């Protein structure tokens, strides 16, 4: 089975999810944000294991979190053309965006057993959709989609932007004032996240060898979406 998948990777606040969602809408495809599943797992761990376990091997072991995910369960559900994360049958799309989840998701995402479980869930979701013939394809965004989860994806995009520009975008999304000091602090935080993601042993953040690199620093969201859609239409028959 040939998977009609567009893999969009890149660092935090590079515009992956926004771009992927709009590209999927223009193509009439489904959208899967891998970060939502990691966040849903983090929420489940916080609510059922406790915040004090975050990052501690005895509290947040991969085996314990995967067992919890299967028990509750934590899963991806297709709602319209968007895969959403559910915990124990409840849509958690809003809850997973909280600062509480954001503070712990990186530690959880670095656990090998967790990454293996998330990758399997993503592949099952996409392959199930392809077999069912429900959508023309799926646009998946994350940090290792083109390198680990769907290395066979016909189109791989790696979005980049300067830390300062990504900081401005992140602050704007939060509704915070975009002043020099706040941009500096947010930029430093993003640069630290980049370093952690790029240097981790399991599935480090990096472009796939055949990925199209797209620097969005000086691009509007509309322009970057247009570029990806043009590439997709050149590769995938209608």
Topology of this structure?
Blueprint: E1 5-9, H1 16-27, E2 30-33, H2 34-48, H3 62-71, E3 74-79, E4 82-87, E5 90-91, H4 99-109, H5 112-132, E6 138-142, H6 145-149, E7 155-160, H7 163-174, H8 180-199, E8 212-215, H9 221-235
Parallel strand pairs: 1-6, 1-7, 2-4, 2-6, 7-8
Antiparallel strand pairs: 3-4, 4-5
In oligomeric terms, what are we looking at?
single chain
Euclidean distance between termini CA atoms:
18 Å
Number of strands: 8
* Class computed from helices, strands and strand pairing: alpha/beta
**Residue share in helix:** 40-55%
Strand content: 15-25%
Can you tell me the residue ranges where pLDDT is under 50 for at least 5 consecutive residues?
none
Radius of gyration: 17 Å
Globular, elongated, flat, extended or rod-shaped: what is the shape? globular
Order of SSEs:
EHEHHEEEHHEHEHHEH
Mean of all residue-level pLDDT scores: 90
**Main beta sheet strand tally, sense and closure:** 8 strands, mixed
Tally the helices: what do you get? 9
3D architecture notes:
This protein has 238 residues and is of the alpha/beta class. The protein is 51% helix and 16% strand. It contains 9 helices and 8 strands. It has helices at 16-27, 34-48, 62-71, 99-109, 112-132, 145-149, 163-174, 180-199, 221-235, and strands at residues 5-9, 30-33, 74-79, 82-87, 90-91, 138-142, 155-160, 212-215. Helix 7 (163-174) crosses helix 8. The radius of gyration is 17 Å and the shape is globular. The model has no long low-confidence stretch (mean pLDDT 90).
């Amino acid at each position: 089975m040939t998977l009609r998948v567009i893999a969009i990777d890149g660092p935090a606040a590079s515009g992956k999810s926004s771009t992927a969602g709009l590209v999927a809408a223009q193509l009439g495809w489904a959208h899967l944000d891998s970060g939502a599943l990691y966040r849903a797992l983090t929420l489940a761990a916080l609510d059922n294991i406790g915040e004090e376990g975050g990052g501690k091997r005895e509290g947040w072991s991969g085996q314990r979190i995967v067992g919890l995910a299967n028990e509750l369960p934590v899963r991806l559900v297709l709602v319209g053309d968007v895969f959403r994360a559910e915990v124990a049958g409840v849509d958690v799309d809003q809850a997973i965006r909280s600062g509480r989840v954001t503070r712990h998701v990186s530690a959880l995402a670095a656990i090998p057993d967790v990454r293996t479980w998330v990758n399997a869930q993503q592949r099952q979701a996409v392959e199930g959709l392809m077999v069912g013939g429900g959508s023309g394809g799926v646009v998946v965004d994350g940090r290792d989609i083109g390198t680990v989860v769907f290395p066979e994806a016909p189109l791989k995009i790696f979005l980049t932007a300067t830390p300062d520009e990504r900081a401005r975008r992140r602050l704007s999304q939060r509704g915070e004032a975009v002043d020099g000091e706040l941009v500096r602090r947010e930029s430093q935080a993003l640069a630290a996240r980049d370093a952690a993601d790029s240097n981790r042993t399991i599935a480090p953040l990096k472009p796939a060898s055949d990925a199209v690199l797209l620097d969005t620093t000086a691009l509007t969201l509309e322009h970057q979406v247009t570029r990806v859609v043009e590439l997709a239409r050149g590769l995938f028959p209608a």
